[in-house]
Design brief:
This protein is of the alpha/beta class. Helices cover about 25% and strands about 25% of the residues. It folds into two domains: about 150 residues, VC0802-like, CATH 3.30.2130; about 150 residues, Vaccinia Virus protein VP39 (Rossmann fold).
Length: about 325
């Protein structure tokens, strides 16, 4: 049997069901977070006709979805293709493609071998998200190609990897802030004043100090001693929610707080005109509070997204200009 004559697997019946409706958008959930994405799309009155792994397929035009790691904005389908035919079809559209592989792995590997390689090395922070144009593709069935030349994330499957520091930071929370900066393509530096609310044990403060910014860590709990001793770090043993807004270049929060309580804090700081930019984590306990997430997204100049390094939480950005579009 040649590489172009792979037999159709037992998933063919499911693929035929997907074939009955067009696909105008596809939403990729992070692993384990399909439910919040499905709930969000339902609230937006978006129909999901099928799931292909973590990829929600819709016959309707794409909409913004905070819980999607990536959104395929212009999906197309081609059927009856050989391995060579699938690769040729993709190459005819553009050079750079990232694959989302659910099944049919051998056939996918054969197609991928015929495509130009796409470098996806981990980022060395500080670094901005890639700017090269990137499309996405998958196989719904061995002979059915689904691909989108345009998508929302600059990363393959929305997965933002870094060369990690396993010595300096006291926790892995620093990766969220690295990703938030990479996606915004801007970060603090020398001369910037940063206020880190709920800072203990100091993962985000460590990031800010390493960038050369003046980092003020606010928390009733102490910082990790190694973080507290870093140049540029000031520790204030206060309540983040009792703190009156004060002029800062950047306001940060990774506090484990109810979303509506954090929303009140953010509104207060924005109304006071105290912070030029804000990045905070919206954390959910139990069920996802979609109403609170929508309230954050409705703040003028704000943006909400689920990062690759987020858990059951979303990241909120505010105060970023038109040239600093969140990737």
């Amino acid at each position: 049997m040649t590489s172009d004559a792979v037999e159709i697997s037992g998933t063919a019946s499911a693929a035929r069901e997907r074939d009955t409706l067009p696909i105008q958008a596809a939403y990729l959930a992070a692993e384990g977070y399909e439910r919040p994405l499905a709930e969000e799309l339902s609230r937006r009155c978006v129909t999901i006709t099928a799931w292909h792994g973590r990829l929600a397929l819709s016959p309707e035009p794409p909409v913004e979805a905070a819980w999607a790691l990536d959104i395929w904005l212009a999906p197309r389908q081609l059927t009856g293709l050989s391995v060579k035919g699938a690769a040729d079809a993709l190459r005819a559209v553009q050079r750079n493609w990232g694959v989302y592989a659910v099944d049919h792995h051998r056939r996918i590997a054969l197609i991928q071998d015929r495509l130009p390689p796409v470098k996806a090395a981990p980022l060395v922070f500080p670094a901005a998200a890639p700017s090269a144009h990137l499309g996405a593709w998958t196989l719904l069935a061995p002979d059915r190609l689904l691909f989108s030349p345009v998508k929302t994330s600059p990363f393959i499957n929305g997965e933002c990897y870094f060369v990690e520091d396993r010595i300096g930071p006291p926790s892995r929370a620093y990766l969220k802030l690295w990703e938030a900066f990479a996606r915004a393509r801007v970060w603090p530096g020398p001369g910037d004043t940063c206020l880190d609310l709920g800072a203990s044990p100091g993962g985000w403060t460590w990031v800010l100090a390493r960038l050369g910014a003046a980092a003020v860590a606010v928390d009733k709990a102490p910082l990790d001693p190694g973080i507290a001793a870093m140049p540029g770090v000031t520790q204030r043993r206060e309540s983040a929610f009792a703190l009156a807004p004060e002029p800062v270049d950047w306001l940060f929060s990774d506090i484990a707080a109810y979303p509506n309580r954090l929303l009140t804090l953010v509104h207060r700081w924005i109304a006071a005109g105290a912070a030029r930019r804000i990045i905070c984590t919206i954390k959910f306990q139990g069920e996802t509070d979609h109403g609170a997430a929508e309230a954050f997204a409705a703040i003028p100049g704000g943006c909400v997204a689920h990062l690759f390094h987020n858990k059951h939480e979303l990241t909120f950005w505010w105060g970023f200009g038109p040239t600093e579009n969140i990737a």
